[in-house]
């Protein structure tokens, strides 16, 4: 089994249904509209976000968030992951009355617990949510830039791509970039290749969340390859949200063959009935990747990680030992 690394997972979206049900019991909420027969129910992107927001609202205290991060990273490590970057959302925590600092410290505590048990390294990417508006995204960027938490190493924007314009977020990304944070932005998931081009033109990210609809434009694919921008691909998420009809139609192999740097990620694993391990299994089964090819994907992820040089060298060393 190749070692794994993940760059794209929303921590609130990683909460397993059992954990959400437990939280709902704690806070006296009815999960039945959103969880049925042990699985999340939704039918399109908007109802997915509704289920996601409902579940997120059930994480309210520092201990709730510490347990969530510990639970997710520990499960990831058991599946062979040595590194995990989680997207954090200060907006969601704010709704629960938790300050961005308390929320971030709590997630950091959970990550430390998971690392103590399993050795998994983790970092946080603070994300603004498009559907929350430009001011809220800039607020998230200002927090990311000044929080000083040692595990906060990146800034990104997620949420409903159909809302707002990437140009509106330039200021937020500049605040984060000036603070030395790594930059990633969701694009080319719900919207077409134009959104990926706009991300490259206006935001100049090191990585793009999804970016897979770049496949619609050969010039853009060449540009992504030439500029070395890394694509955080999430195949099961794309099939579940009907970005593509089937794994056979997924552009992961084509993007890789065109020279783009691609990685494998779970996005919001239980919502898409997946896990990082399953994404690697899918790549083996549907994209004909052997263990060596999968190990190379892990190496691409570590190379692209928003992590200090020393930690990166240590992680790459672990891959080398395993590959020998
Ligand atoms: N937030 C959580 N999951 C997301 C996704 N797949 N796309 C955009 N925003 C998200
Ligand atoms: Zn995402």
Q: What's a quick, concise take on this entry?
A:
Belongs to the metallo-dependent hydrolases superfamily. Adenosine and AMP deaminases family. By secondary structure, this protein is α/β, with parallel strands linked by helices.
Explain what this protein looks like in three dimensions:
With 324 residues, this protein is α/β, with parallel strands linked by helices. It has one domain: TIM Barrel (Alpha-Beta Barrel). 49% of the residues lie in helices and 16% in strands. The chain has 14 helices and ten strands. An eight-stranded parallel sheet has the order 1-4-5-6-7-8-9-10. A two-stranded antiparallel ribbon has the order 2-3. Helix 3 runs parallel beside helix 5. The chain is globular and about 50 Å long. Bound molecules: adenine and zinc ion. Adenine (ADE) binds next to loops.
Keywords:
alpha/beta; TIM Barrel; 8-stranded parallel beta sheet; two-stranded antiparallel sheet; 14 helices; binds adenine; binds zinc ion
């Amino acid at each position: 089994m190749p070692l794994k690394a993940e760059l794209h997972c929303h921590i609130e979206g990683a909460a397993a249904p059992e954990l959400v049900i437990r939280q709902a019991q704690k806070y006296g909420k009815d999960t039945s509209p959103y969880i049925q027969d042990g699985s999340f129910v939704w039918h399109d992107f908007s109802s997915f976000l509704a289920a996601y927001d409902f579940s997120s609202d059930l994480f309210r205290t520092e201990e709730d968030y510490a347990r969530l991060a510990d639970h997710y990273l520990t499960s990831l490590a058991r599946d062979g992951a040595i590194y995990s970057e989680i997207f954090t959302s200060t907006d969601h925590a704010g709704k629960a009355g938790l300050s961005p600092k308390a929320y971030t410290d709590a997630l950091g505590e959970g990550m430390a617990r998971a690392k103590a048990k399993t050795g998994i390294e983790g970092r946080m990417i603070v994300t603004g949510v498009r559907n929350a508006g430009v001011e809220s995204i800039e607020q998230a960027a200002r927090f990311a830039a000044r929080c000083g938490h040692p595990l906060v190493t990146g800034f990104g924007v997620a949420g409903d791509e159909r809302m707002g314009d990437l140009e509106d977020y330039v200021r937020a990304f500049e605040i984060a970039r000036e603070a030395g944070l790594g930059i990633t932005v969701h694009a080319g998931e719900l919207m077409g290749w134009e959104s990926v081009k706009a991300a490259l033109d206006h935001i100049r990210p090191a990585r793009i969340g999804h970016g897979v609809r770049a496949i619609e434009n050969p010039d853009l694919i060449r540009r992504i390859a030439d500029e070395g921008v890394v694509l955080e691909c999430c195949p099961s998420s794309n099939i579940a949200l009907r970005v593509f009809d089937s794994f056979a139609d997924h552009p992961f192999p084509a993007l890789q063959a065109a020279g783009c740097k691609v990685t494998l990620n779970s996005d919001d694993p239980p919502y898409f009935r997946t896990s990082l391990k399953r994404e690697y299994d899918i790549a083996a089964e549907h994209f004909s990747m052997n263990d060596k090819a999968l190990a190379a994907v892990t190496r691409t992820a570590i190379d692209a990680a928003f992590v200090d040089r020393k930690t990166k060298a240590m992680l790459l060393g672990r891959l080398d030992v395993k590959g020998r």
